[in-house]
C-alpha cells in the first residue's frame, strides 16, 4: 500500500470564495477541490509499505508524539505546484515553525527505512493542498489576487496515516490511523496560577 504521513487540518475554515468564483469563470480548467475532511499538511511520504510494517510504524509514531505537543501554524498566500506558469495543484502556504521542523526531522530519522530514497527532509516545505487540476495549467493570473492573502492560523494536534487508494490527477485517500499529539505540557501550562 502507498501511504503518507500528514498533519490534520480538517478543522480549518478558509475564506476562498473569490478563488472559487475565479475558478468557475476560468475556461478549460478542469479542477477538483480537496475535500474539506481531508485537508492536511503533508509531512512525509512513506511510499509502498507492506501491511505488516504498519504496526512498527504505529509504535514509532506513538513514541515520537509522546514528546510533541500541538502547535499553531500561520497560513498565507495561494500558490501553484510545480510552478505558477505550469501548475497542477493549488496550495496555501504554511509557516515552517521550529515545532513543525522538529517533528518532521524526528519522523524522518525514526522512519528512514520506510521513506523513499529520493525524498529529502532538506527539501521539506509545508503546504496545504486545496485544488487539483486534471492537466497542467497557466494559473498565474488566477493566483495573483491571492498571493498576499492571510488566512489566519490552524492548531495542529493530529498526525494521520493516509493510504492512496487511487492515483491520478484526482487521487483519493483513505485514513488508516490517527495519532493525537501529547498536550500534557499544554494542559499543565494552562493550570499555572500567577
Outline the structure in words.
By secondary structure, the chain is of the alpha+beta class. It has one domain (2-9, 21-190): Cyclic Phosphodiesterase, Chain: A (Alpha-Beta Complex), CATH 3.90.1140. It is 23% helix and 40% strand. The chain has five helices and nine strands, in the order βαββαββαβαβββα. β8 and β9 (172-180) form a beta hairpin. The longest helix is centred in the middle third of the chain and has 13 residues, at 98-110. It is globular, with a radius of gyration of 18 Å. The protein starts with a strand and ends with a helix. Mean pLDDT is 88; it is low at 185-194.
DSSP helical segment count? 5
**Oligomerization status of the protein chains:** single chain
Content of β-strand = 35-45%
Distance between the termini: 51 Å
Question: What is the makeup of the main sheet?
Answer: 5 strands, antiparallel
**Overall pLDDT confidence:** 88
Q: Roughly how much helix do the residues carry, as a percent range?
A: 10-25%
Tally of domains: 1
Order of helices and strands: EHEEHEEHEHEEEH
CATH homologous superfamily grouping: Cyclic phosphodiesterase
Total beta strands: 9
Catalogue the unreliable spans. Answer: 185-194
| Strand order across the largest sheet | 2-6-5-4-7
SS content category: alpha+beta
CATH topology: Cyclic Phosphodiesterase, Chain: A
The CATH architecture category equals Alpha-Beta Complex
Radius of gyration: 18 Å
Overall form:
globular
* CATH class term: Alpha Beta
Record the SSE blueprint.
Elements lengths: L1 E7 L8 H9 L5 E3 L6 E9 L5 H12 L5 E13 L2 E9 L3 H13 L16 E11 L2 H4 L6 E7 L1 E9 L5 E9 L3 H7 L4
Antiparallel strand pairs: 1-3, 1-8, 2-6, 4-5, 4-7, 5-6, 8-9
Helix pairs in contact: 2-3
